[in-house]
Write a structure and sequence with these properties.
Layout lengths: L5 H5 L23 E12 L6 H18 L4 E8 L3 H8 L6 E6 L3 H8 L8 E5 L21 E4 L2 H17 E5 L3 H17 L23 E8 L4 E8 L7 H13 L3 H7 L18 H10 L4 E9 L8 H15 L4 E7 L3 H5 L4 E8 L9 E7 L6
Parallel strand pairs: 1-2, 1-3, 3-4, 4-5, 9-10
Antiparallel strand pairs: 6-7, 7-8, 8-9, 10-12, 11-12
Helix pairs in contact: 2-5
Length: about 375
């Protein structure tokens, strides 16, 4: 059973050069300090940018320090320097899925020309401080739903950190839209299991008997999941769209799924009352959100919410949540979202800051769902002309 889902077609697909990573057994991924694979960083600097070699080395030291402090897994990083750009790309082409070329001070056209003969196995390239004033910097991302051969970054350290994270997560599995029957069953079950363990689901809620966490916002949502190589769902999140964006086919599909699994209470939670409420999920907890949202509507701003960012406890030291959110931002871009919002416990704000979100002033709550803990609203503007 599979619904027609336009966004699964709209998300850019992985390019052919992605290696089959089945050889990395899951047992290797749970070591204390290493993911069980290596990653080579190859630097190539123009004569005007040799000073950046020192900056590259400092960046790697800082990234390793950051991972140790967070007790996160990191690949074995091998740093080498090539005499020129052509040699760097040639070295990286041997193992393109485990290589990053750091090209400092080279014009974009020169890099594209050098990459041309390696079109089937493009290594990832970072340009720090591009020499041409007309070139635009990219926001560093670890998204698995965007393929970009050339990335221009202002912060070398953050750009490298994101790409290392992307390589780590790719070894564990893949991120993709949730569209199949078994995927949805795992999705609603994972949401219930983790949220119930965290105390976000009140003990007296009727959902306890069904074991699925679902609500009527799923009628407007686009979920994505992180799946292991064995197709086990290990993490998930969803993009909640505005009212009026309900997918009739998806609603029909999920309704049949609930009926097939005899999830009567969950089916009631999924049903739409027909009464207009706050347009998004957890954001309704925040006093003043309605006025904030109204101002966006007046500007004809397309808004969506990041929701249900959930990671299996056994996989929380890999940076999965960050890559999931980065990937959901990729979905939001494809959907034409102008402003992406979320509500989170204040303690989790650093995670979302790393994904480009900033706190919205004066939107604060003293609770998060049923838990008494300070929480905030954050946003990321994807279209500056609409904010």
């Amino acid at each position: 059973m599979k619904p027609s889902n336009k966004y699964s077609q709209a998300v850019p697909q992985q390019t052919p050069e992605v290696l089959n990573l089945q050889k990395f057994a899951n047992s290797n991924l749970h070591s204390e300090n290493s993911t069980g694979f290596h990653l080579q960083l190859i630097t190539a600097c123009s004569s005007q940018s040799m000073r950046e070699l020192k900056q590259v080395k400092e960046s790697i030291v800082n990234i390793k320090k950051l991972h140790r402090q967070g007790k996160k897994h990191l690949p074995v990083i091998e740093l080498s320097h090539a005499e020129n750009l052509t040699d760097a790309i040639s070295q990286a082409s041997v193992e393109p899925d485990f290589s990053i070329v750091l090209a400092c001070g080279y014009p974009t056209e020169e890099i594209r020309s050098a990459l041309a003969e390696y079109s089937s196995t493009l290594p990832i390239v970072i340009i720090s401080h591009p020499p041409e004033h007309t070139e635009r910097y990219h926001t560093p991302t670890s998204s698995l739903l965007e393929e970009r051969a050339i990335t221009r970054v202002k912060s070398l350290e953050e750009g490298v950190r994101k790409l290392i994270l992307r390589h780590v997560i790719r070894q564990l599995g893949e991120i993709r839209p949730i569209i199949e029957q078994l995927e949805f069953e795992q999705y609603f079950s994972l949401r219930f299991r983790i949220w119930n363990d965290m105390g976000y689901i009140a003990p007296d809620r009727d959902l306890q008997q069904d074991g699925w966490e679902i609500d009527h916002f799923d009628r407007f949502s686009l979920p994505i999941g992180f799946f292991s190589h064995n197709n086990e769902l290990l993490a998930c999140c969803r993009l909640v769209q505005q009212y009026g964006c309900e997918s009739t086919k998806n609603v029909r599909f999920i309704s049949k799924l609930l009926e097939h699994n005899n999830k009567q209470v969950a089916a009631q939670a999924f049903s739409y009352t027909g009464k207009f409420e706050q347009p998004f999920d957890i954001l309704c907890e925040f006093r003043g959100f309605r006025e904030y949202y109204r101002s966006l509507v007046h500007k004809q701003t397309t808004v969506a919410e990041v929701s249900r960012v959930i990671v299996d406890p056994g996989y929380r030291r890999f940076g999965l949540a960050e890559t999931l959110v980065d990937s959901l931002v990729s979905v939001a871009k494809v959907q034409g979202i102008d402003v992406f919002m979320l509500a989170c416990r204040e303690a989790l704000s650093p995670l979302y800051q790393r994904c480009g979100f900033v706190a919205v002033p004066n939107l604060i709550s003293e609770k998060f769902l049923s838990i008494s803990e300070k929480s905030i609203v954050m946003e990321r503007v994807l279209n500056r002309g609409k904010k």
